[in-house]
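Per-record layout

source: Pseudomonas knackmussii
name: Putative purine-cytosine permease yxlA
length: 463
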Amino acid sequence: MTTTQNSASTLELSTIQPIAAHERHGRARDLFTIWFGSNIMLLTVVTGALAVTVFKLSFVAALLALVLGNLVGGIFMALHSAQGPQLGVPQMVQTRGQFGSFGSLLVVALVVIMYLGFFASNLVLGGQTLSARFPVVSTNAGILLVGVVSVIATVFGYRLIHGYTRLMSWLSGGVLLLSFVWVLFVHGLPADFMQRNGFNLPGFMGALSIAALWQLAYAPYVSDYSRYMPQDTGSRTAFWSSYWGCCLGSILPMVLGVMVGLAADGGDVVAGLIGMTGGFSAVMVAVFSIGIAATNAMNLYCGTLSAITVGQTLIPSWNAKAGWRAFIALSLFGGSLALALLGQDNFMANYTNFILLLLYVLVPWSAINLVDYYLVAHGKYDVLSFFRRDGGIYGTFNWTAVNCYVLGILVQVPFMSTELYTGVVAKAMNGADISWIVGLGVVSPVYWLFSRKRQRALAGARA
């Protein structure tokens, strides 16, 4: 492989096409840095703070809920990542192997909406933080600045995003460490820090669910960033590199968020973080804002690939390349920019509701995908069938998967606990939300039982 081909500035020509063996490159440690570097940002800090500002947990209870949620959710995230080197296609393309060519469209469309939501959330937080620390920069100008950097990385594609997050692993990691030092030893924590808030079961389950979802939200695109890895990278190596990169990169800034959320007055986490890091806050805000742009580039890149997946399903002859990726990325950026500018005034309320709703639609898809890949198909798929309008051997609709997906959403309804709706079981449990646990527990065995007959038929078709 030449130096030019390995350069981060090399324009990626492919979009959703299978990655041929001679195009494969990278090492397992690249999977660690992309997930470690992309998670150390302000949105992760704010998400961790929800455990004490929204769910009213003490430091110890919040720490336990967030660590446990990340470690459990990270299992599912990393299992999806391990699929990339084996199949060499984006995650949403591979979903056609479970749902069929047209059956997968609903899931792919929901994922595009998810990317836009996270992209807009990051834009708002980045813009507000830059404006708070550097008043000369308006919130709208900060939103636009973070967005432009994200679009540039998306246009160049896979290599630049990996290079970007590799740099941020060191830069953001160092700044995070110094932020801990400043908060603990320079500013200091209140004397009653450990006595603030307490334990409550609904809050504990809410914080645990938020942390688990943080990991599960990567599931629909995590293998997009491992699909260029050589096939001999190995599933086990890909799993652990992704798992520890994402878990450590998430837990550490979330702990900082818990500390700031408990110590700061008024519940404004960003203002509290700026105040508690004093003179270091200018560097911290600048670096974490750059980190937001890196993560947003990943959201926009995968949202673009998913949009192309929808288009290619409807027009199989469409072979989108780099030009189409740039055009679609700019179009999606326009939509996210509008969401960010219109929704910035109620950011925290909108963001909390958004990620809870995501939990309900992502869980059944993740269960179906993982059961199918590891227990039904055992990682063996006819990749060429993914790109046929009729779905090839997988057909246009796999009603087993579609029905299980709908079932997975419905069984969660009694256990949901949000501002918009609280189910009867959640009310009986004083608002504790265990819907995602129920969704995984029901969908996984049901899909496995009903898929065995179909898998025997598919095995005969591949023979």
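summary: The domain at 30-348 is CATH 1.10.4160.10 (Hydantoin permease). Confidence is low (pLDDT under 50) at residues 1-5.
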